[in-house]
From TrEMBL, chain A:
One term of GO molecular function: auxin binding
Gene Ontology biological process terms, A to Z: auxin-activated signaling pathway; pollen maturation; SCF-dependent proteasomal ubiquitin-dependent protein catabolic process
Keyword vocabulary terms for this entry: Auxin signaling pathway, Developmental protein, Nucleus, Ubl conjugation pathway
Species classification: Eukaryota, Viridiplantae, Streptophyta, Embryophyta, Tracheophyta
Pathway per the UniProt entry: Protein modification; protein ubiquitination
All copies of domain Transport inhibitor response, residue ranges: 80-126
Species for this entry: Citrus sinensis
Major location category of this protein: nucleus
COI1 F-box domain ranges (all copies): 22-60
Highest taxon above the source species: Eukaryota
GO CC terms of this entry: nucleus; SCF ubiquitin ligase complex
Protein name in the entry: F-box domain-containing protein
From TrEMBL, chain B:
Name of the protein described by the UniProt record: Auxin-responsive protein
Organism this protein belongs to: Citrus sinensis
Protein's cellular compartments: Nucleus
Keyword annotations: Auxin signaling pathway, Nucleus, Repressor, Transcription, Transcription regulation
Transmembrane segments: none
PANTHER family to which the protein is assigned, alphabetical: AUXIN-RESPONSIVE PROTEIN (PTHR31734:SF44), AUXIN-RESPONSIVE PROTEIN IAA17 (PTHR31734)
Highest taxon listed in the record's lineage: Eukaryota
Subunit structure: Homodimers and heterodimers.
Ranges where the record places region Disordered: 96-124
Gene Ontology biological process terms in this record: auxin-activated signaling pathway; regulation of DNA-templated transcription
Length: 585, 259
């Protein structure tokens, strides 16, 4: 990689170009095929025509962050040898119901193009795409080498589609179905894996709800000797889990089923021994409805855990603290806020290697809950876990001083996502805006790539961000700011900004239009419930033909207001599959 | 109108969002920093029945009738009379109750600057109550996980349970031996929380409430205790047996007569 970029700088005159031109293409392709980073590959392709050509022929993986930024035709024309595709579709705020249904991002047209141009496609990773059963059937039948399917936050399909995959994909190694809006009609899809099928390495169906045939699952697990990742759903009981573990001691990542069962002594001992036998487990999740009584069965397994995901189960602080004592090697931890500050203190005391913490709210809409976590828990973790660099924290109160302390302890944050759940809430001790908190974050954490802000914020927060957050790539803003100036500061100041998503802020046309050139260097901009008008959007669309400017109107809103705006750069022109609720300007 | 908005900006900054649903009326959650006291009151919104007294229907704010969406909303005028609001200007700032009724867009102090509302944002009235679409930013499937947790039948139980009840709670039921509900008293900024498992009758409950809000016993007769049940309806506490009350109460309100 180093030599590649050095060479880029050293190509000055024609004599030297003649020398490099005689460098055999095949060798160049082999060298370039070692490059995996998408950014490196992009750089390489810009060097000269030969390198562009070599890069396109040698590339086997492609990552498309916005499925509408390019078309299947353009993609397949440029890259003839793709084996692995990653596609992301809808804007992230679709996760929170802010995007109308049938918005788009349908995979089918892509699959049709791939069937023609990439018949040897092996891997497909989709995020926030619309996937139908028909598409899954098409996928299963048209790609004989297909190995890996990962669907994250997708919707539109049912377990029938999964049945098609299980039935036809003879070489499947990975089936990862996460967090999807899936219609789960029956668990019989799992029984569709033929008895001759043995190649599975990753199986994740944790978020499905129907019962699967446990015999079929046991047989599947028994014969797939390379199975490394198994994440079952809630319908699998503890006893069934024990039988699975016994058949797969080589597992590295485990998602348990329900942890709630009346186990007598013998089955409990069996469970514990089954866990002890799985010496390679480094990732643990599931634990639905975990009863503290059975958690000790895990204690020995916890010694080697690097990732513990307890975000599906409401553990209290005491039982959680007892568990976490056994997890000294933890690097990533996801929990519910039922563990409270005391639980987080235990994390600070026991997990010095922690790098990532996510605390989700157990009852986000219940104002009567007096539990949950506060700034104290976060501060406690920061004192004990100096390597912390990724945080997602939902809380009901925060102070500027606490955040300042936190980033002083942990200056290496790359991802800082703080959600104070009441919009516009000030520092509860001083009653001041939370500007200084995020100011401290951006001043101290020079490596910051992703930031989500919350609480009462004036334009000052955005001045800080524009001035200091030089590595910021993704910014999420809600219920914040005072004037256009806020957004302008960010657009002018953050050179690496790629994704900006804004909702319910007083940013208007002046702010929108100040970013004209900027948007071409970004992946996308989302603005909803702000002060942007249709005319401003039209002006933007007119001046910047390489941007798609899409507006989604709400029922009954003023004709001149652009309620939701989604702007993204594209080489594919305006899309033709937009539903009536989405206007392309 | 401008005068009204200035009052709001001074003391009662409300969340910005214009709604397309024209939710009328709103409820303050004054757990935030400051105090506001209406100088006078619109008699129609205060209850002039005595505390634990008659079972006359409560006009204005409270109602014993069901409505299809369970929203018992006062109009802005009933809630308080703007002319008489005497706000103590705090150093801040927004004051909201995002889990409850939603303000009209004209109440947004930030409108003062550009005189336009924020643009629409839907409120959603679902089992979780009335709240803003997509906030807090939690994925749907995760919200569903804890949904049953939020609506355990019969409220939080009094007795501790060693093993989680098999009620299908996806989050692994919260074992709790307390039952906190919020208590709001008219004219008092800060709502309080009270553990209902500590009481076994309206008498003991109200005695505590009197003490909690610093009322003199004589004054307490001016107050009526009402509660919101699981369907969102506001009912008079004394109208139902204690057992019924305990199983269905979500929050309490002490309202008083004018003067």
């Amino acid at each position: 990689m180093e030599s590649e970029s050095k060479r880029k700088k050293e190509s000055p005159n024609t004599a030297e170009l003649a020398v490099t031109a005689s460098f055999p293409d095949e060798v160049l392709e082999i060298v370039l095929s070692l490059l995996t980073s998408h950014r490196d590959r992009s750089s390489v392709s810009l060097v000269c025509k030969d390198w562009y050509r070599a890069e396109r022929w040698s590339r086997t993986q492609v990552f498309i962050g916005n499925c509408y930024s390019v078309s299947p035709e353009i993609l397949t024309r440029r890259f003839p040898n793709i084996r692995s595709v990653t596609l992301k579709g809808k804007p992230r705020f679709s996760d929170f119901n802010l995007v109308p249904p049938n918005w788009g991002a349908d995979i089918h047209a892509w699959l049709v193009a791939f069937a023609a141009k990439y018949p040897f496609l092996e891997e497909l990773r989709l995020k926030r795409m619309a996937v139908s059963d028909e598409s899954l059937e098409f996928l299963a039948s048209n790609f004989p080498n297909f190995k890996l399917l990962s669907l994250l936050s997708c919707d539109g399909f049912s377990t029938d589609g999964l049945a098609a995959i299980a039935t036809h994909c003879k070489n499947l190694t990975e089936l990862d179905i996460q967090e999807n809006g899936i219609e789960d009609s029956s668990g019989s899809w799992l029984s569709c894996f033929p008895e001759s099928f043995t190649s599975l390495e990753v199986l994740n169906f944790a978020n499905l709800t129907s019962e699967v045939n446990t015999d079929a699952l046991e047989r599947l697990v028994s014969r797939c000797k390379s199975l490394k990742v198994l994440k079952v759903n809630k319908s699998i009981s503890l006893e069934q889990l024990q039988r699975l573990l016994v058949r797969a001691p080589q597992l590295e990542e485990l998602g348990t089923g329900s942890f709630l069962q009346d186990l007598t002594a013998r089955p409990y001992a069996d469970l514990e021994s089954a866990f002890n036998n799985c010496k390679n487990i480094h990732t643990l999740s599931g634990l639905w409805e975990a009863v503290p009584l059975y958690l000790p069965a895990l204690y020995n397994s916890c010694a080697n855990l690097t990732f513990l995901n307890l975000s599906y189960t409401a553990l209290q602080s005491g039982e959680f603290a007892k568990l976490v004592v056994h997890c000294p090697r933890l690097r990533r931890l996801w929990v519910l806020d039922t563990v409270e500050d005391k639980g987080l203190e235990a994390v600070g005391s026991n997990c010095p290697l922690l790098e990532e913490l996510r605390v989700f709210p157990a009852d986000p809409f219940d104002e009567e809950i007096i539990h949950g976590v506060t700034e104290e828990g976060f501060v406690a973790v920061s004192f004990g876990c100096r390597r912390l660099h990724y945080v997602l924290y939902f809380c009901r109160q925060m102070t500027n001083a606490a955040v300042a302390t936190i980033v002083q302890n942990c200056p290496n944050f790359t991802h800082f996502r703080l959600c104070i759940m009441t919009p516009g809430l000030p520092d509860y001790l001083t009653n001041e805006p939370m500007d200084e908190a995020f100011g401290a974050v951006v001043k101290t954490c020079s490596k910051l790539q992703r930031l989500s802000v919350s609480g009462l914020l004036t334009d000052l927060t955005f001045e800080y961000i524009g001035k200091y957050a030089k590595n910021l790539e993704t910014l999420s803003v809600a219920f914040a700011g005072r004037s256009d100036r806020g957004m302008q500061c960010v657009l002018e100041g953050c050179p690496k900004l790629r994704k900006l998503e804004i909702r319910d802020c007083p940013f208007g046309n002046e702010a929108l239009l100040s970013g004209l050139e900027k948007y071409e260097s970004m992946r996308s901009l989302w603005m909803s419930a702000c002060n942007v008008t249709m005319n401003a959007c039209r002006r933007l669309a007119k001046q910047m033909p390489r941007l798609n400017v899409e507006v989604m109107k709400e029922d009954g809103s003023d004709d001149s207001q652009a309620d939701k705006v989604y702007i993204y750069r594209t080489v594919a022109g305006p899309r033709r599959d937009a539903p009536p609720s989405v206007l392309t300007l | 109108m401008i005068h009204m908005m200035m009052e709001l900006q001074l003391g009662l900054a409300l969340p910005s969002i214009a709604t397309t649903h024209h939710v009328r009326g709103f409820e303050f959650d004054l757990n935030n920093s400051y105090v506001y006291e209406p100088k006078d009151s619109d008699p129609s919104s205060w209850n002039i029945n005595s505390y634990f007294g008659s079972s006359a229907s409560v006009p204005g704010k409270c109602s014993t009738t069901n409505s299809s969406n369970g929203n018992k909303k006062r109009s802005c005028d009933d809630a308080f009379d703007y002319e008489q609001v005497r706000a103590v200007p705090p150093r801040t700032l927004p004051l909201f109750n995002w889990n409850s009724r939603y303000p009209d867009d004209e109440d947004d102090p930030r409108d003062l600057d550009n005189n336009s509302s924020f643009g629409s944002n839907k409120t959603v009235d679902d089992e979780d109550g009335v709240h803003v679409v997509g906030w807090p930013p939690i994925k749907n499937w995760r919200k569903k996980l804890c949904h049953q947790q939020h609506h355990i039948p019969g409220g939080r139980v009094k007795n501790n349970q060693a093993v989680v009840a098999n009620n299908g709670s996806a989050c692994g039921g919260r074992q709790s031996n307390s039952m906190y509900v919020k208590v709001k008293m008219e004219g008092v900024a800060i709502a309080r929380k009270i553990d209902l498992t500590l009481y076994d009758s309206f008498e003991t409950l109200t005695n505590t409430l009197i003490g909690m809000f610093g009322l003199w016993l004589e004054d307490s007769y001016d107050y009526q205790l009402t509660y919101q049940d699981r369907e969102g309806d506001w009912l008079i506490a004394k109208d139902v047996p204690w057992r019924t009350f305990i199983q269905t109460v979500q929050r309490l309100n002490l309202s008083r007569s004018g003067g």
